[in-house]
Specification:
alpha/beta
Length: 320
């Protein structure tokens, strides 16, 4: 239990608890039915638990790993009461996430040895990509960092306009061209401007189209290649934004984007409006790519740095 004796920001934790309320309520409703009339964790309970986890969007492969972990503990402890199941779930899922999430991020931070630090943001339209970029820019600027945004999603005029709204709101510069312009050209201009301004961080929006994976792959590869003409080894991070409320569809999007480009981190949004919060556990485990940020509300402060202990504590804390 020492894993969960952590000091969290009370305000951040309250927002997280509230954001995961629907997921937690639905999960515990299913769990209660799964263990009804049972005092001991046996094969029937484990079979029911497996169904609960799968239907909570944790995913089949990750569910089987969790069940295997719990079975190992049951066989070792001989007798395990169903009243202990919640605690065991918290510990085993935190342990599973620890295999992907080394260390505990608690703040919005970037490496000190990369300037400007370049993040390329990918994801299909409608997942909250542009909003995530705006909220990230806000958090980094709040720390005194100089941020530049690049509107390289030139496929839709609305994407450029939306990013401009966020740039105005956060009061950071944005580099953009007309709709239909070459995304790589926008990325080149953005990095060139950022270098001249001595910016600390650059966040590049990209087109959210998956209808043709080959085109997407070629476009993202070209954007990367052109950026490297300005700053070597960029982008330093490729952040894939996924909509948590789409459940298993988020898995499919993650599969497609990880085939199209080298994704290094994930942001899972819209967790506050859904009962599918378990998808964070499955995606984190299945893709072995760290979930870096989660969206748990519409407010500008409601994008949080993902912390495995905080998340699992909020999700499985029945008294919270």
């Amino acid at each position: 239990m020492s894993l969960f004796k952590k000091i969290f920001s009370s305000q951040k934790k309250e927002t997280l608890d509230k954001g995961l309320e629907k997921s937690k309520t639905t999960f515990f409703s299913k769990l209660s039915k799964a263990v009804a009339g049972k005092s001991k964790v046996d094969d029937d309970v484990l079979d029911n638990l497996e169904e609960v986890l799968v239907t909570s969007d944790v995913g089949v492969n990750t569910t089987l790993k969790i069940i295997d972990r719990i079975e190992a503990r049951v066989s070792k402890d001989k007798y395990m009461g169903t009243d202990e199941l919640n605690t065991i779930l918290r510990e085993e899922i935190a342990g599973l996430l620890s295999e992907t999430h080394v260390g505990e991020e608690v703040e919005f931070a970037i490496p000190n040895d990369k300037k400007p630090y370049v993040i390329m943001v990918v994801g299909v339209n409608g997942v909250g990509k542009t909003t995530t970029i705006g909220k990230l820019a806000y958090q980094f600027k709040k720390q005194g960092l100089k941020v530049v945004l690049g509107a390289a999603d030139t496929f839709r005029a609305a994407a450029i306009d939306q990013l401009q709204v966020w740039a105005d709101r956060v009061d950071v510069p944005i580099i953009k061209q007309n709709m239909g312009s070459d995304p790589a050209s926008v990325a080149f201009d953005t990095l060139s401007s950022a270098v001249k301004q001595d910016a600390d961080i650059v966040i590049i929006d990209t087109a959210g189209r998956l209808h043709n994976k080959v085109n997407l792959m070629n476009e993202l590869t070209k954007v990367k290649r052109v950026m490297q003409k300005v700053v070597d080894d960029t982008p330093h991070e490729v952040l894939l934004v996924l909509d948590g409320s789409t459940g298993q569809n988020a898995f499919e999007q993650a599969k497609e984007f990880t085939k199209a480009t080298e994704v290094t981190s994930l942001a899972v949004t819209k967790l506050d409006g859904t009962a599918k919060g378990g998808v964070v556990i499955g995606i984190s485990d299945q893709f072995q790519i760290p979930v870096k940020y989660i969206g748990v509300g519409e407010g500008i402060e409601d994008l949080q740095v993902f912390n495995k202990y905080e998340f699992v504590d909020s999700f499985f804390n029945i008294s919270g």
